[in-house]
Amino acid sequence: MKRKTILLFLLTLLIPMFFLLSSCFGQIEVEPKIEVTPDSSFRFEMTTTKTGYMVNKFIGTESKVRIPEKYNDKPVIYILSEAFANNDVIEEIVIPNTIIDMWGAVFKGCTNLTKVTIPASVKSIAPITFQDCVGLETINVEKDNPNYRSIDGAVYSKDGKTLIIYPAGKTGKINFNKGITKIDDLLLEHVKL
Known about the structure:
- By secondary structure, the protein is an alpha/beta fold.
- The chain folds into two domains: about 1-30; about 35-190, Leucine-rich repeat, LRR (right-handed beta-alpha superhelix).
- The protein has two helices and 15 strands.
């Protein structure tokens, strides 16, 4: 009897979550497709939705990676958690100005990543996006981004009061923004300051 109750409880949690995600992304294909951009420079697994593409996993071997803005006339708008995780080849990544969200530990463990810029289009970014990127000393945020800004190579809320991401490879004395009032809880859990 207890197993049945637990199973029903889990189903009542999972079914609404599925519909919530479906409504957020539109119709989600069940299986990701392995696709290659026309110039063969960006190999990835992705999922298509009504509004655009989600990068599920990078499967290329390039050290300088440029995520395409569009594929099949649809924008590339999301990068899912751990899509580039534990890649020790990537040194530089160019994120297009079509990306809206970067969920979870997108670049976790990319130990040779040294250069990245967050475009103006990004509305949400997780504090663990660059977790364990020990070569990353500076994260730049485009000035037109309405939600975030870069101060001394770290990512802050636009008003500069909340520290969102501190690069794992940054050495020396930590210089917090003078107006800081909060450090994101996830940042404290996953980054050694």
